[in-house]
Amino acid sequence: MPNGFKLLTVFGIPIYINYTWFIVFSLVVWTLAMGYFPQMGPDYRPLTQWTMAFVTAFILFTSILMHELAHSYVAQRQGIRIKSITLFVFGGIAHMIGESRSPRGEMKIAAAGPVLSLLISGTFWGINYFSKMWMNASSVPTISYFLTITNLFLALFNLIPGFPLDGGRILRAIIWERTGNLSKATLITSRIGKGFALFLIISGFWDIFQGTFINGLWLIFIGIFLQQAAEEGYRQTLLHRTLSSVKVRDVMTAPAIVVDGDITLDRIVNDFFFHYRFNSFPVVSHNTLVGIISIHDIKEVKKEMWPYTLVKDIMCPDLSAFAISPESGVLEALERMVESQHGRLVVMKDEKVMGIISQRNIMQMLKLKTDLGRA
Asked: What is the mean pLDDT of the segment spanning 37-59?
């Protein structure tokens, strides 16, 4: 997804808003102001309609955020780290590092979101019921009725038994508990999820042929998103199950090829990058690791300056960003590579360079274990 910006932090979890979120937020506000509220209250003034639309949309997306926070809170209670929550064009998504260790734990995490959405829906139903008795002419009953229905729909939609929807995760937990095989459970529920996604796509095209273009287009987009998420979810589960017990020392390349910080860029390009065809190299000075240099660092320097620029002048000196222990798990290494955008990490022990681990090393191990039926 495109980049966004950080909004706030809740339960120690950073909340981000993706720029695509403003598309759906604006569309919801426009639909409410121009379609829903004029039908529900023909006497509302235009300014009142737009104000009600903005307030309703804000509460709706707050409810979606609370849905994701419910998942995240229960996951945190089980020791799973939540990297962030992002609001984007299709709602919200929690970025969890790792998975539940038991079917019951997975079921609790999956059920937390729909349960909270049902509670929110019930709360607004109560507001709607009592506000009709005491202030029927106000905008409160109209807003609360809409939020009752949408949160109920959010809960029921997520309970559809197809991965990666919450219902699919609950079904996956049930199959996992009965078979003891998480990979098999994920495969079954992801196929159901892709089947449901295909149904949405076909329904979207049918709506377009019937003349409801916008509604059909949204169904197609949601279907494509769910289909991709189901496939990615299965790959992620396979990756975690296959590599969860593998250590960095099991896949690293040793010894590591290092470069001296006092050589020039034209020399490192010709003698190292072209010769070994790696994307980065550890940099040492007097046998001590001082940084790492990547091809991206060199591309930032004009080519005519390469003979006059030393490696130590442009290398990345932050050892914490690219150094890892040989006893760390390869999944941690892979996560670090993604976060730091370094394709290779330096394996360090007692301040000595032990080797290099790359994404290629990890993918080769994954393929080998998968081919041999060790997933």
From this structure: 87
pTM for this predicted structure: 0.76
Kindly report, residue by residue over 235-269, the tens digit of the pLDDT: 887 788 778 788 999 889 888 889 998 999 999 99
The first and second tokens of residue 364, run together, are 């080769």
CATH 3.10.580.10 describes domain 248-371: yes
Neighbours of 136 (CB within 10 A): 9
User: Using CB atoms within 10 A of its CB, is residue 120 exposed (0-12), middle (13-18) or buried (19+)?
Assistant: buried
In degrees rounded to 5, what are phi and psi of residue 259? -125, 155
> Which residue did the predictor score with more confidence, 251 or 137?
251
How many degrees, rounded to 5, is the angle at CA 216 between CA 200 and CA 91?
Answer: 70
As a three-state string, the secondary structure of the chain is CCCEEEEEEECCEEEEEECCHHHHHHHHHHHHHHHHHHHHCCCCCHHHHHHHHHHHHHHHHHHHHHHHHHHHHHHHHCCCEEEEEEEECCEEEEEEECCCCCHHHHHHHHHHHHHHHHHHHHHHHHHHHHHHHHCCCCCHHHHHHHHHHHHHHHHHHHCCCCCCCHHHHHHHHHHHHHHCCHHHHHHHHHHHHHHHHHHHHHHHHHHHHCCCHHHHHHHHHHHHHHHHHHHHHHHHHHHHHHHCCCEHHHHCECCCCCEECCCEHHHHHHHHHHHHCCCEEEEEECCEEEEEEEHHHHHCCCHHHHHHCEHHHHCECCHHHHEECCCCEHHHHHHHHHHHCCCEEEEEECCEEEEEEEHHHHHHHHHHHHHCCCC
Domain ranges of the chain: 4-243, 248-371
For residues 250 and 365, give the distance between their C-alpha atoms in angstroms, rounded to a whole number: 9
- Pair type for strands 13-18 and 81-88: parallel
pLDDT digits (tens, 9 = 90+) for 299-337: 999 999 999 999 999 998 887 778 889 898 888 888 888
Tokens 């969860």 belong to 244
